[in-house]
Amino acid sequence: MTSTVVGPVLEARLRTILDELGPYPHARVELARVSERPTPATPTAPDPARPADAPPDQRKKGRLLKVSCPACGYPARVTRVWLTKVGPPICPCNSQPMVITDQSPVAKAFKEESEPT
Fold this sequence. Notes:
The chain is α+β, with helices and mostly antiparallel strands. The chain has helices at about 10-20, 80-85, 105-115; strands at about 65-70, 75-80, 100.
């Protein structure tokens, strides 16, 4: 069995509850099956986080930047916000600050912004 059906006992109990509650104080809700739902006629709006010249099959990358310990290579991921607010995490192995090793465009831009001029 791939679905659950309402038995006569449950149906009788639910009808009693519905009678006690009264009419639903809202417009009628129509539930449609997934196959019956209308499909949007217009394409979705472009994703502002994705470059305009990106290939159509390129997916949006996550916001976590990869950092690792320069001494032992211990990897971690951290958001750009935390890198800006408090700096890179400290390696649990040897207590050294980790460095950004992510090669994404977001990480490269962050490195350029954070370098002293």
